[in-house]
Amino acid sequence: MQKKKILEELVELLKSLGFKIRKDSGNFEGGACILFSEKLIVLNKNMPTEIHFKVLANVARDYLNKIYIKPRLREIIEKELETNSLQPIEIYVSKNEENNESNT
Q1: Percent of the chain at pLDDT above 70?
Q2: Are 42 and 30 a contacting pair, CB within 8 Å?
Q3: Which of 3, 33, 53, 67 has the smallest CB count inside 10 Å?
Q4: How far is Cα 59 from Cα 72, in angstroms, rounded to an integer?
Q5: Which residues pair with 39 in a beta bridge?
Q6: pTM of the model
Q7: Which residues have a Cβ under 8 Å from the Cβ of 88 and sit 6 or more positions away?
Q8: Has residue 54 got a pLDDT over 70?
């Protein structure tokens, strides 16, 4: 499978699980969070495809034993995770916390 095709399949898989995927620029590789009950993955648009795949595979790790994933895509994700030391990051922010911060 070509890298671009693999990345597209991984993006579609995560979207089917309710994740929104956003690309931004900055001083980060990317990661996942939950913001106002919305599952969000942020990718650095300046990073190469390999980094995007790493971030997305890291998020998909939690679903490997819970849902059907095409065998070839599953194999590629598992292989990536063997060499990937990133840990998923989850951030929970409630509307009350946001309102309190903006009032101070």
Answers
A1: 79
A2: yes
A3: 67
A4: 17
A5: 19, 34
A6: 0.73
A7: 31, 32, 58, 59, 61, 62
A8: yes
